[in-house]
Amino acid sequence: MKKLKRSARLVEMTQYLLNRPHTLISLTAFADRYQSAKSSISEDLAIIKEVFEEEGIGELHTLAGAAGGVKYIPKMTTTAAVSIMHNIFRQLEQPERVLPGGYLYMTDMLGQPELLHDVGRIFATAFADRSIDVIMTVETKGIPLAYATATCLNLPVVIVRRDNKVTEGSAVSINYVSGSNKRIQTMSLARRALKERSRVLIIDDFMKAGGTVQGMMDLLYEFNATVAGVGVFVESGEVGSEDRLLEDYISLAKLTAVDMKTKQTTVVLGNYFDDKV
């Protein structure tokens, strides 16, 4: 890259960091890239770090030593996250979204790039300090959320299928009990999709009793993998704690009431915000 003026270098360096979250970048790499002294690079990074933190963009961690460098960690402030969720609530509470069984139609929302980016950042903030190797979800509506979170955490995504695909080779399949309708269902994961002893973050779009998430956890047991966390976009508030199949999870929103006659719904902040607001 040709030598840039400082103002241009700051812009390019910022974009470079934003595109490589959770990646350690050495000062030498920056110095070579911009043909600048390490002292100048350090000053630039100090400016970027200050702006990132003041504007709630994230944190810039500095690691000293020969193998050190800087690492951008995407973060979102609680105030920003709450504001985003309230905007999402306005969409979720639209009467036409109410489906039989107390479910909400969310497919169109999960196709909105800005919404996905924001939700991905909130999940990335919630799980930023955990050791994670891969993100897992089950087809189909959880896939966009998983990829949005993976982009912020710079991690690969593994997709659990409802049935085995010939194109994925041999697979591990299990039966699980759906928490919502108590039916026996099947899910499978290709053997090549997940390394043994991986630390896995499960992301799902909607959770009622938690049967699907519990099924994924049981599937991970077959790979000797560890559940590093569970993130749910919307959970149902109609299921009591005694009927919930899992306790350790983070939800961003809770559907507390659905009136099938009037099509009125009430959505509130999920348990992620319990100790924050």
TrEMBL record:
BP GO annotations: negative regulation of DNA-templated transcription; negative regulation of purine nucleobase metabolic process
Phosphoribosyltransferase domain boundaries: 110-239
Domain Bacterial purine repressor N-terminal: 5-74
Keyword Transmembrane: no
Keywords associated with the record: DNA-binding, Transcription, Transcription regulation
Xref: InterPro entries: PRTase-like, PRTase_dom, Pur/Pyrimidine_PRTase, PuR_N, PurR_Bsub, WH-like_DNA-bd_sf, WH_DNA-bd_sf
CDD domains: PRTases_typeI (cd06223)
UniProt-listed Pfam families: Pribosyltran, PuR_N
GO molecular function per UniProt: DNA binding
UniProt entry tagged with the keyword Transcription: yes
SUPFAM superfamilies referenced in this protein's UniProt entry, alphabetically: PRTase-like, Winged helix' DNA-binding domain
UniProt signal peptide: none
Subunit structure: Homodimer.
Assigned protein family: Belongs to the purine/pyrimidine phosphoribosyltransferase family. PurR subfamily.
Protein name as catalogued: Purine operon repressor
